[in-house]
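Case study: Zinc finger CCHC domain-containing protein 4-like isoform X1.
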Amino acid sequence: MSDRLTSAGCGVEVCLTSEAPAPHCPHGPTLLFERYIRGAPSGEKFYACSACRDRKECSFYLRYGEKMSEARQEAWANITAASQPTYTHKQFCKRLVEFRALPMSKRRFCESCSLLLLPAEWEEHSQHRVLQTVTLDQLTRPTHLLHPRENKKTNAQYLFSEKTLQFFLSQVQQLGYDRVLCVGVPRLHETIQSQRAARLSQLDSLLLDIDHRHAQFYSEEHFCHYNMFNHHFFDGGSASDACLQFLHRNHGTGIVMVTDPPFGGLVEVLCHCMKKLFSLWKEGLPDSCQETEIPTLWIFPYFMEQRIVDCLPSFRMLDYKVEYENHPLYQEGPKSKKRGSPVRIFTNLPTDRVVLPQKEGYRFCDLCRRYVAPENRHCQKCNCCTSKDGRTYVHCDLCQKCVKPAWSHCESCRRCEPRDHVCSQTQHLGGCYICGHPEHKRRECPQRFSEERYSGAERKSGKRKRKREGNNEAAQPGKKRTLEQKQKFKKQNVKGKWKQGNRQQGKQTTF
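Here is what the predicted structure looks like once written out:
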């Protein structure tokens, strides 16, 4: 799901401008992708799951323009039905009221099923791992009960460390917001709700998350089962209405969005869905208001900065290093990264308004008008604090910019590269993959639909022709195939049948 080429010279990009209705998989509407090959004007378009990068997790695949058979529609309808939660959100809320009324000795939680158990269900879960007592405090902190999901190719869940959690809470309060839209940030949401229940704070929050397990702990006003990669509310109109009411409260003022999406997700898709949330929020603002974006704090790795800024020009990266308690590298400790966590905050707020903790070494740069990390030094030539990854960058006069300290200028590549790099293997991947022009991408290339370029069908037919000619080298009158030629022919024949079988079943390469 990247628009960069692989080593084989091919890649996959998402098509966000398609007007045709997309088919559904268990994770909601699918996305339209296009697989392309270097030098080819167009490639194969297909629909695939928006949430899962691993086809083993969701194998939905449909070629663009292909009609799905009734048998296949029925099969996917059954798969979608089987993947739904055991209860609806309303039923979960009713069960929670009954569960809270039980004495603590009868409040049990099935860790195997991630389900709060009522007494009538104990026998059914007798062979599972069951927590025998659940306190009211644990009910307000479900992330301490639920085991985080760890599949990095679907929806791996990393939870804020206590230090990072307190930082976000303090920032929201200092900035003067009264409610937080938590998109994929369950630990922040539960902390806000627990403080609100204890009357320690008036701050309110709504959680939008793809993990339906949270539905059994929160009311419909405080949780929506939501896919942030296709802007899909699984519970339909009731969930979207709850989100709208939260966004439009107080005529849309006093709200901030905090989002922590999976790091493997496509930035273009995330920005596309974020803009849809911005549009919903804009509907509740007075006509005289010129604001178009919800004040946002987006948590993402620093090396995705350029992609985020390209999609959302109003966003800027802060130096604060976000830490997670259940990630071995993105936290403090002996196994953590030497330069600290690579996860940062991107925001459309004025950078001088977000105050980073000075006790951790962050300081305010008067020239840049923002708080910077202790290792980030202001470069007079670049006129900004340039460090990104936790090291102090150095200025290269030939490149006319600051670079990582371990890099040096390479005359062959005409830019700074790691000292041990191989020039032939560091070709720049930016620009157009059809004509090579650095100023535009493949999708905007004027040669993409040129009649002078060969089509995909011609390319495939030429490949088959060459293959047939190669197989028939010895199949001429008066000549016999050698044993080596026979083995080669057999191997190619088996491989061709295997590929054809995979295409018929829709088992394409994982993207």
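For the exam, be able to explain this: Residues 472 and 489 are 9 Å apart (CA to CA).
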